[in-house]
Each structure stands twice: as C-alpha cells, then as structure tokens.
Amino acid sequence: MIGAAWRYSGLSGRLSARIRAELQEQMVLILHPSPWRLRWLGLFTLVGHPLFGWIWGHWLPQPYEHPGLRAVMGALGLLLISESIANDPSSKLSARVFTLVTWLQLPLFFSWMYLCNSGNTVWLASFCAMLLIYYHLTDWRVATLGSVTGVLLAGTLFHLFGPTVAPMDPQQWTINAVVITFCWSSALLLGLSSANLRREHLQYTLTTMGIMAHELRTPLATISLIGDALRNENQAGREADGAQRLDQLVVRLHGLVRNMNQQIDTQIANASLLRLPMHRETVSAAALLRNVVKDYPYRNSRERESVTLVLRKDFSFESSYRLFAQVINNLLKNAFRSLAAVSSAPKPGDLRIEVGVLNGAGRIVVTDQGVGIPPELQARIFEPFFSTDHGTGHGLGLAFCQQVVQGAGGTIRVKSEPGRGAVFIIELAPVHEGLFRP
Fold it and tell me: Is the dihedral of CA 333, 335, 336, 338 positive or negative?
C-alpha cells in the first residue's frame, strides 16, 4: 500500500508539473491555423446547422428544435469565411472572432439544446461530440473555460426562458453525468497531450537548428586554418603586389568566418528559445554595449560608421552576459536589415544606441532610421515564428530577445512609424548605477 501510495504520489506530482508547464505556454487560440481550415469550418457551420435543423425537426423529430436559432448559428459561419478573418488566421482579430464563434455555436448552443431536449440520447451524443470537437479546434485552456461558462450561461438562460420540458429522472441524470464526465475528461487529456506534442515538436525543430549550426563550425574552422596558412605563406615572402592582394583575401576570408560564426551564434541562441539557461551574473550595460558594437561583424565600413553609441549613465543588471549580448546583436542585425531596405546608403547616426537611467530604471535604446514597422504588426513582432521579413526572417530573433529581457526582470517594447524607422526600448531594474567614465 505504501509503495502504491508513493507511485500514485509521484504520478500525481508529474501530472501537476505537466499541467503547470502547459499553463505557462502561450495559448494558441486557433489550432493549426490556415485560410482553408477557417473557410472549411465556416462552410461547415453555414451548411451544417440548417441541415441538422431539418434532420432533427422533420426527418427524425426531436422534442425541441428552433429554426430561427439554427439560422443564427449557421450565419456565424459567414464570419469565418469572410476575407478579413480567413485570409490572416494568425491575426488577433481572427483569433478573437474564431474564439467567439466557436464558443457561441459549441458549448453555449449545444448546452441549450441538450437542456431543452431533456438530455435525450440524441443530444447526449451531440453534447459529447461537441466537447471533443471544441478541444480539437482551440487551446485546451480556452476550451475548458469556454465549456464551463457555456454550460453555466445555457443553464441560466434555460431556467429563465427555456421551454417547459419533462425533467430527467435520477437514473437518466446519473447515466448522462457519467458519460459526459468521461467524455469531458477524455477531451481534456487529449487537449493536454496535443499541446505537449506541439511543444515537443517545436523543441525538436529548434534543437535540430542548433545541431545544424554546430555542424557548420567544422568547415568554418577549416577555412580559418586555410586563411592562416595563406597568411604564413604571404609573410614568408612573395612579390609585393601579389602579397598585398593575398593579404587582402586573407582579411576578407577571416571576416567571412567571423560573420558566419556570428550567424551561427544567433541560430544556436534562437534554438535555445524554449530552454534558455538560468545562469545569472552582474552585467555592466556600458561594457556590454561597447563590446557588442566593437565585435559586431559589419559587412562594410558604411555599416560600422553608421553606428553611434551614446553612454549617458552606466548601470548594472542581473542576467546572462552571453545571452544579453545576443539580444543586442539581434537588434543590430534587424536594424541593419531595415536600413538596407531604404534606398539611400547608411550614414553616421542612422543607428543610434543609448545607455542611461530614467526614473530609476536602466534603459538601452536602439534607434534606426530604416523602413519602420506598420502599426498592425508591432503587437506581433515578439511572437515566435512571426517575421516581417518573409524572405530571410525566421521569426525567432525578437521572441528570443523578449524572453531574455523578461528573464532579467525587464521589458522590451517598440515604437515605430512606417518610413520613420523604429525604436526598441529595453528597461531593466538596475542593481547598481553610476556615472559613465570613458
């Protein structure tokens, strides 16, 4: 008995830990979003409600059926089919409309019909099917909250405005309660399992990215050795002009290696998005920014000259130096990409980095004079896999930045107007601040 109790306690603890981990994950309001998925759901809603209204009203009559209510539920499908919703299923508007439509036509409507038909066999089966469908369409937390609120609201409306129906006898009520409880718990476990599989799939994908990035280091090391060999040959004595050209090639080769290593570091850091290490140390903002700006792999002298570093007041904060350096690198890379999209070549001051303290909070501000970010996209740029650069962006850089900054107890936000550049503001709680000394 004691062993069984310990095993049960361990299983319960692991299950509780899994549920806590799931609760911390970002909610996905539309599972597997795609324009055609939304359109098919909208079409099924538009056609399905009138069809089943005819089946239960005329072909296989049930005690209660309401054509007007069926028409309203079916009309909700038009919202999912509309271009503003279906064409961009990952937008906040689409998610909110989808959440509202599914809540109205699934838990609220099916609970109402179940009560109005005295929980008969048809609507017991329909209610159970609704639960499974609901948990398949949206995040399990949304489905759980929606199911509870839908049942409670439908019960209240039935008590106030519902038709007079024969109450369920105790045996039927007990049977229905057991069947619904089994179905609901099954739907919940399937929802938890689905969320876990999605998270593991993302972790495997990001881990693979990290492995691939590590593998690239071997040929890069070989290239670097070749560059050293060429430099040694050059120093051994060659024709003056040829030696100079060879030395230039070596410099370019080493610059290429540094640039590729920088990109690899970026990919490795992004691949650790879901499992960032918790190592913390005291980091000087001024020293960090100096080193990052000095060591950044600029593509040309114009990029290097376009950066202006303004150190108004130094402060220290608790974080990982390596991870926070990658945050600044990501912001610089995005800023240079934005500047490259502008027709004119970058000039001094086009990328400005400021370090200071304002109202007791340490601030790092990265400002560029690039193309800017449209207002409708600014709320989403920190989401994983969302990128405004559909050509080369993977959508992990800013999500990584946000997670590292939040892990340091800070915030990161953006202010931007199209055509007027962007300003990324990082605010941190300083553990020490002092005047900047050159």
Answer: positive
pLDDT at res. 299: 78
Q: What is the DSSP letter of 274?
A: G
Structural contact between residues 409 and 318, judged by C-beta atoms closer than 8 angstroms: yes
User: CB–CB of 238/246 below 8 Å?
Assistant: yes
Q: What is the dihedral of CA 284, 286, 289, 293, to 10 degrees?
A: -140
Tokens at residue 246, please? 């060879």
Query: Which parts of the chain have pLDDT scores under 70?
Result: 1-26, 200-227, 229-279, 343, 385-396, 431-438
Give the angle 389-205-86 at the CA atoms, nearest 5°. Answer: 50
- Spatial separation of the C-alpha atoms in residues 327 and 304, rounded to whole Å: 18
Phi-psi map region of 166: left, alpha, beta (phi>0 left; psi -120 to 50 alpha): beta
Alpha helix stretches (DSSP H) within 109-169: 109-116, 121-137, 140-161
Distances (CA, A) of 2 to 6, 12, 15: 6, 15, 20
For residue 22, give the amino acid letter. E
**Count of other CB atoms within 10 angstroms of residue 160:** 7
267: tokens are 């990919």
Instruction: With beta carbons less than 8 A apart as the criterion, state whether 117 and 130 touch.
Output: no
Query: Alpha-carbon distance 78 to 419, whole Å?
Result: 36
pLDDT of amino acid 420: 85
CA angle 269, 272, 277 (to 5 degrees): 95
> How confident is the model at residue 158, as a pLDDT?
95
CB atoms within 10 A of CB 390: 7
- How many helices (H) and strands (E) the chain has is answered by 17, 8
Mapping DSSP to helix (H, G, I), strand (E, B) and coil, where does residue 240 land?
Answer: helix
Structure token pair of residue 184: 């609901």
Distance CA 287, CA 316 (A): 10
Phi-psi region of 429 (alpha: psi -120 to 50; beta: other; left: phi over 0): beta
CA proximity to 105, closest of 130, 138, 142: 130
Please count the residues of the chain.
438
**pTM of model > 0.85:** no
Identify which of 274, 404, 279 has the alpha carbon closest to the alpha carbon of residue 330: 404
Q: Spell out where 26-88 has E strands.
A: none
Question: Which stretch of DSSP H or E encloses residue 103?
Answer: helix 92-103
SS3 string of 155-178? HHHHHHHCCCCCCCCHHHHHHHHH
Spatial distance between the Cα atoms of 15 and 192, rounded to a whole number of angstroms: 10
Q: Which residue has the tokens 């593998």?
A: 215
**CA–centroid distance for 175 within its chain:** 42
Alpha carbon distance 81, 187 (integer Å):
27
